[in-house]
Specification:
signal, plasmid, DUF4440 domain-containing protein, Nuclear Transport Factor 2, Chain: A, NTF2-like_dom_sf, six-stranded mixed beta sheet, alpha+beta
């Protein structure tokens, strides 16, 4: 009888720890995602350089490029991500991979032209040692009525 209680107690503790860990990881990645938009608006390429994995890819409406190109675009203001208003978010974590979906209104300046566009942005992160690194960011143009399924 005591063994049975002991097994149940360890099972419940392990389950609770597992949920707490996932919740902490979700909070961490969601905060990184939110911070990323501010760093992009501030053109803070030093913080973004640390966040973006060296093999990261970025898919925009006008093309796809790698980390160094994205950082240069942000630094020079070729695309200035002035303000991202997040309307809805969702996250799923599987192992060391996190996928974040943000439905945003992006106010930007693209090659000198002001733009205000509704997007759903998909971000892929991977836990490397103790840090989360962004592997991919993809913009999808959507209607303002689009909702992210949770």
């Amino acid at each position: 009888m005591k063994i049975k209680h002991l097994i149940i107690t360890f099972f419940l503790l392990g389950t609770t720890f597992s949920f707490a860990q996932t919740s902490k990881d979700e909070q961490t990645v969601m905060q990184l995602s939110k911070d990323k938009w501010q760093w992009m608006a501030d053109k803070d390429v030093d913080k973004l350089k640390d966040l973006f994995d060296n093999k990261a890819k970025f898919l925009h409406m006008s093309g796809t490029w790698k980390k160094d190109e994205e950082l240069e675009i942000i630094k020079t203001g070729s695309i200035w991500y002035k303000k991202a208003t997040i309307h809805d978010s969702a996250i799923e974590i599987s192992g060391k991979t996190a996928i974040v979906w943000n439905r945003i209104t992006l106010e930007s300046i693209v090659r000198g032209n002001e733009a205000k566009v509704e997007f759903t942005v998909t971000e892929v992160y991977q836990k490397q040692n103790k840090d989360w690194k962004m592997l991919a960011l993809s913009f999808s143009s959507v209607r303002d009525t689009h909702q992210i399924k949770k």
